Amino acid sequence: MAKVRETVPQIDLGDSQYYFNRELSWLEFNNRVLHEAIDTRTPLLERLKFAAIFSSNLDEFFMVRVSTLKEQVEAQVSKLTPDGRTPEQQLREISQQLRPMVTRQHQLVEQELRPLLAQHKVHILNYIDLDQDQRFYLQQYFEENVFPILTPLAIDPSHPFPHMSNLSLNLAVSVKDPVTEKDHFARVKVPSILPRFVEFPESLRQYEGQKAVWVGVPLEQVIAHNLEALFPGMVIQEYGFFRITRDADLEVQEYEADDLLIAIEQELRKRRLGGFVVRLEIQTAMPESLRSPLVEEFELTDDDVYEVEGLLNLKDLFALLGLPLPELKDPVWTPAIPPRLKRVNEYETEEAFQQQKAIEDIFSVIQEGDLLVHHPYESFTASVQRFITQAAYDPQVLAIKMTLYRTSGDSPIVNALIAAAENGKQVGVLVELKARFDEANNISWARRLEAVGVNVVYGIVGLKTHTKIVLVVRQEDKQLRRYVHIGTGNYNPKTASLYTDLGLLSCREELGADLTDLFNYLTGYSRQQAYRKLLVAPVNLRDRMLALIQRETAHAQQGHAAAITAKMNALIDPMIIRALYEASQAGVQIDLVVRGMCCLRPGIPGVSETIRVMSIIGRYLEHSRIFRFHNNGDEQIFIGSADWMPRNLDRRVEAVTPVEDPKLVNELQEILQILLSDNRQAWDLQPDGRYIQRYPGPDEAERSAQRILMERANHSE
Predict the structure, then answer these.
(1) Which of 201, 208, 319, 571 is deepest in the core (most CB within 10 A)?
(2) Over the stretch 375-399, which tens digit does the pLDDT of each residue have?
(3) pLDDT above 70 as % of the chain
(4) pTM tops 0.85, yes or no
(5) Which of 466, 485, 555, 623 is catalytic?
(6) 374 given a catalytic annotation
(7) Which of 128, 124, 146 lies closest to 200 in space, CA to CA?
């Protein structure tokens, strides 16, 4: 009798149990940020910085993500997320998961960080802690600098509830009219144009008889102790501090907009006024008589109200990071100049270029071979910024094209583009007006560029242009040569010192031709569907990434070595996750470095047991994207602007480039290996969604990837 073969049950890889919720995963990311503030190994002022970042991150989360969920609830959206949750369930679980974090953050600041700062003679004092001289100073400060710009607003039948701006800090005040014996409710906005902390002059910079480095008091407390001046003749009964967060996601109907720039300007005006309120923050001590009118007026539930002990709006702690206390900060880091660029002279006029003709320029360096730059370990100014600046003044350069997603307020990059246009070069710039929370800045730059004759475009209807690319066309002898920069980060010298990013400088003909086609797609009418080297979203990036993963699966099924290593900001896309699960089932070893949200569930037997996911939270924001495929020994490695998220693969213009120079491939492999070996700021994602931080073993040296990469940059030849 033939033996019946036992069948293995087929696993449904689309089952919701194999996917984490993206919003809850983001909260886990922000919890790792908070842990850097909790970790005593972090220098004190850096701990304060991470506490501020935690708050700043939450503001954006509520303005964009929570507001979207609330709109879905209002619209009665019933579609489940890949993890099987409704919008109502997500809001409920966000509240449950977030509240302990917020409590922990405020306890940390009030009970640990403020006392530690005091030990170093930095005092954030409460008004009641002040001596008579300090109170007299604040009285004068209030009368001269604060009182004239305050506007107390009564709230009664003849004074409707005032509009309160997004992220505003306010006082709710209860006063009694001694004549009519009636109680009244009023609101006073804490002016954001003034410093949040009122700093005392050096002569009053003391506490408990000791001279201090810095002494200050929160501005809202100064206002609270001078309310009699705002309500003369009234009896101040109670007051409390509160802060509101509103929906701030822009809704631009691009297909209906005749002028996208004007349409976004109109939406920005709406944002300043703000949409519906999504969060109310109050101090625990706020009386119910003041809390209730706010909750009722803003149409909130208890789940929308966050009570905290201590200061509201902790992101204002950023103001203390400039204190002259280097021993409480990370050591100062000066980015290294890439070795091949040390012999390049910078010039900012055509005359200077002519005088230095014998000195090598950046273009001759790129002609020798591709150049990989790694920020902030290597200088952005001496590489990418110099590339664009020299292109602006080099008389052989005929044209410059680039994309601008985010840049700094006083941008040397934009100034170079303006100079290039004034020098008679053809300059085309795609300015992404829809870069969230940078829209106003980008509108300003777009107008300046247009004013000097730069060809400015705003991208493709329905898509954000997120790609980071520059194309320079140069006349050399009797031919044109194209130079390119393809990066993972924005053309912003400020964030280049805070974010880790990679960029490829090359004059490979195929990359130049691809960028020419891509810019024609961005600025004109094009249905370009094929690129020589580039992986471009939304054209071919998704299909190519899936094909690369599936090729590793096939190699593993054939008994060959197969491996994938990828680094990114977020892993959300269900199709990519499913492909990774199939690769794992085939035996592909997969190592993922995902800084933020990750919806993939690693370590599940029969599904993802060969997948490891880690996150690094450190001094620099991990922003670079690297994709490495073993390919049976014929390795392929890519860098670019895209994460594995639906928005990057389907709703944004992105560019990912192969890195083909063997030296640069080895360099990227080394970077990945350094990151994977981190045991100081690395966290491992568990199958249940928790992250566990790595610590060195008993006989193991501490390895911080970011510190190792700084040392590596300093010793490069």
Answers:
(1) 571
(2) 999 999 999 999 999 999 999 999 9
(3) 90
(4) yes
(5) 466
(6) no
(7) 124
